UniProtKB/TrEMBL annotation:
Record InterPro entries: Kinase-like_dom_sf, Prot_kinase_dom, Ser/Thr_Kinases-Pseudokinases
PROSITE patterns cross-referenced by the UniProt entry: PROTEIN_KINASE_DOM
Molecular functions per Gene Ontology: ATP binding; protein serine/threonine kinase activity
Pfam families in alphabetical order: Pkinase
Annotated protein name in UniProt: Protein kinase domain-containing protein
Limits of the Protein kinase domain: 1-110
Length: 110
């Protein structure tokens, strides 16, 4: 697939870069949604420059594409949800879990 669809902050880096992408891009978006549900805030709400200014959207997207910025999770986030979210938001699509693996991770007992 190569169509540029989606909402930028929830869009996988490979799509932002205009590369071919697979279903793994959806897993990235799922990870961003987990971050959003955890923090109750928009993705990258806590992205600031070194001098404390809020990052501009274009810089956020550039940093996401460069692998320098990922969605954040709160300290109160359940460990399992954090683990899944971080795995889904890996820069390299081949390092993201499959949908079946995410289901397994969500349903495993502690």
């Amino acid at each position: 697939m190569t169509a540029g669809v989606g909402t930028p902050y929830w869009t996988a880096p490979e799509i932002l870069e205009g590369k071919r992408y697979t279903e793994q891009a959806d897993l990235y978006s799922f990870g961003v949604v987990l971050s959003e549900l955890d923090t109750c805030k928009l993705p990258f709400h806590d992205a600031f420059t070194s001098d404390g200014k809020k990052l501009k959207p274009v810089q956020i997207l550039a940093d996401v594409m460069a692998g320098m910025l990922r969605p954040s999770f709160s300290n109160e986030c359940p460990q399992r949800i954090r683990r899944i979210g971080v795995a889904c938001c890996q820069q390299d699509p081949s390092r993201r879990p499959s949908a079946a693996q995410v289901v397994s991770m969500l349903t495993e007992t502690d």
